[in-house]
Design goal:
Elements (H helix, E strand, L loop, with lengths): L2 H7 L3 H8 L9 H10 L1 E12 L2 E23 L1 E3 L4 E4 L1 E8 L7 E7 L2 E25 L2 E4 L2 E10 L5 E9 L6 E7 L9 E4 L5 E9 L4 E9 L8 E4 L3 H4 L4 H35 L8 E2 L2 E2 L7 H9 L4 H13 L3 E5 L2 H4 L4 E5 L9 H10 L10 E3 L8 H17 L7 H29 L3 H17 L8 H19 L10 H17 L3 H5 L1 H8 L9 E2 L9 H17 L5
Parallel strand pairs: 1-10, 18-21
Antiparallel strand pairs: 1-2, 2-7, 3-4, 4-15, 5-7, 6-7, 8-9, 9-14, 10-13, 11-14, 12-13, 16-17, 18-19, 19-20
């Protein structure tokens, strides 16, 4: 064995052996194969290989002992996994079969995985010895090995029956430098029975006695470099690594994604930037205490629930809680804090007060009816806050929907913010699902999976960006500007000083603005301003809309209100478990 041939034979034996196990040796069942191997056999398998012009022409003469079958199968290894991203392939073409003595002559080839199975069949079942001449052209079996072209090919064997004698002759039309051969499974390093060159060194001659089913006679022949015209053939292997490779298609998709995202940012700037410009220009106009004589009005007469929806474009639970407090301040409800020492728990009662509902906005009317309507549909004069837990969630959804409709009715939004977000989110999720399906399909069949990944990213960005798509009108932005100034006033927690306001007026001002403090999450700071006013007001141990238990006074109001807002938000949003 020459050193050149030995080097060629050093292959990834384990990988090739694993590939060989991927498919059965023939299309027959194991039982059928066992019976065939016991009753049929290949008497001789003589192969002549002619190498030249980049093609190896193979003529294989098979003398087969039949025992009731109409043909046989011969298996070739036509693909090797050389790396994670590349396969070496061997291409068979111009396949044909003939027989001088009535043997099968119909040849078909099917490839699966690393193997190609050639089936030779006839029109009838056969017995006894028949000769079949199998011919094909082979490309990709020659490898440049330094200063030599080396042919490597399992020329004989690959049947599911034993082979008595296998032989091969390699003719390259030029001097052969070295020969070698191996017998056994693909990748075997066991030498064959005999190999040598003819006296002119123009032919390699090989032979092997007794091959078991599935074994091969593999021949090696080295030629001077460039004399065969042959070269190895490679194909890019379809794997996860190759599926997500960067190429012209995937690169273009990524560039398109950047353009799409850039356009999305520009669109958001045009929508959201308009809000920011109007707000920034007019914010200072609202930065003052909205007090005019004895009248105390919020900025532009906007209700707390409206402000909460306007600021973050969400009709949140805290906005509904602020509306409940506002209904109490405006005389529609009385909030009564129960004595924990008596009841054993902290709870409040919301009691209906007789007042015309003509001044209520639609969402406020829905909320008030929802609070004071029992689960059986009857009206009630009072309800404990704890009784709302688990029963109010459906009604809460109706209130929030009405709040979204209200901000559109006010002209602050052209469309309902929740509808705008839903449309963009659904579109983004649909695009993401499409991208996932496309990525999987592309990864399994092509190298363009990165394009599908780009669609997934675009869909996710669309779904995320959709949360910022609701845009205020110019009127809504103006109201927001005044709201920002009003929030700054509440955050300072300052009531007018001096004698300009009597204590009852200061308490009324505090009460009027408290629902807005709930929206802006500054209840504790703003509620602290009532303690001093309560000390100045005779008999001010309660507010006109909030009654505490015995021994309760306004000094405890800040903590009571903080706890009340938390408990209310939890109760009205809690869903009843099934």
């Amino acid at each position: 064995m020459s050193a050149l041939a030995a080097l060629r034979r050093v292959r990834p034996v384990m990988a090739v052996a694993a590939a060989a196990a991927l498919l059965p040796l023939t299309m027959a069942t194991p039982a059928d194969a066992a019976r065939r191997a016991a009753t049929e056999r290949v008497l001789t398998d003589r192969v002549v290989l002619t190498v030249g012009n980049g093609v190896t022409h193979v003529k294989e003469t098979i003398v087969y002992e039949f025992a009731g079958h109409d043909g046989f199968a011969r298996e070739f290894v036509t693909r090797e996994h050389e790396s994670a991203t590349r396969d070496r392939v061997y291409r068979l073409s111009n396949l044909r079969a003939s027989s001088p003595d009535g043997g099968p002559t119909r040849a078909t080839a099917t490839s699966e995985g690393t193997r190609t199975t050639v089936e030779v069949s006839g029109a009838k079942e056969l017995t006894g010895r028949h000769t079949v001449v199998l011919e094909y052209d082979l490309r990709g079996a020659v490898t440049r090995m330094g200063a030599a072209d080396e042919l490597w090919w399992p020329v004989a064997g690959g049947f599911d029956v034993p082979v008595e004698t296998a032989s091969a002759t390699v003719d390259g039309g030029t001097m052969i430098r070295n020969v070698n051969c191996f017998a056994g499974p693909i990748g075997s390093t066991v030498g064959c029975t005999q190999f040598y060159m003819n006296h002119a060194h123009t032919q390699g001659i090989y032979s092997q006695e007794k091959l078991l089913p599935g074994e091969y006679l593999t021949v090696v022949a080295g030629f001077p470099a460039g004399t065969t015209g042959g070269h190895p053939l490679y194909e890019r292997r379809q794997t996860v690594a190759t599926a997500f490779s960067v190429n012209a298609v995937t690169g273009s998709a990524l560039i398109g994604l950047l353009v799409l995202l850039g356009g999305g940012v520009a669109a958001l700037y045009m929508l959201r930037g308009r809000d920011a410009r109007v707000v920034g220009r007019r914010a200072a106009e609202g930065d003052h205490a909205p007090v005019a004589g004895a009248e105390f009005e919020p900025p532009d007469g906007v209700r707390p629930g409206q402000i909460g929806t306007l600021v973050d474009e969400q009709a949140d639970v805290i906005d509904v809680t602020a509306t409940i407090v506002d209904l109490a301040v405006r005389g529609y409800l009385l909030i009564e804090e129960e004595d924990r020492a008596v009841t054993g728990r902290l709870d409040w009662t919301l009691r209906r007060l007789e007042r015309p509902m003509v001044d209520l906005l639609p969402y406020e009317r829905i909320l008030l009816d929802a609070l004071l309507t029992a689960p059986d549909g009857t009206a009630r004069d009072a309800v404990k806050l704890s009784e709302l837990g688990g029963t109010f969630a459906t009604k809460l959804a109706q209130v929030r929907s009405a709040m979204y409709a209200d901000v559109v009715r006010q002209g602050w939004f052209a469309r309902r913010p929740d509808t705008v977000r839903s449309r963009w989110t659904i579109a983004g999720l649909a695009l993401t699902v499409l991208g996932i399906a496309g990525t999987v399909g592309l990864a399994l069949t092509t190298e363009w999976a990165l394009a599908g990944l780009a669609v997934i990213i675009a869909g996710a960005a669309l779904a995320y960006g959709g949360q910022y798509m609701p845009a205020k009108t110019a009127r809504g932005s103006t109201v927001l500007a005044h709201t920002i100034g009003f929030r700054a006033y509440l955050e300072r927690g300052e009531l007018p000083e001096g004698g300009s306001l009597a204590s009852p007026q200061r308490i009324a001002l505090f009460s009027r603005f408290l629902p807005y403090a709930v929206v802006f999450d500054v209840v504790e700071r703003w509620a602290g301003t009532v303690e001093d006013a309560g000390e100045r007001a005779e008999g001010a141990d309660n507010l006109y809309w909030y009654e505490g238990p015995a021994e309760w006074d306004l000094s405890k109001f800040a903590e009571s209100m903080r706890t009340f807002t938390l408990a209310t938000s939890g109760s009205i949003s809690q869903s009843r478990g099934l």
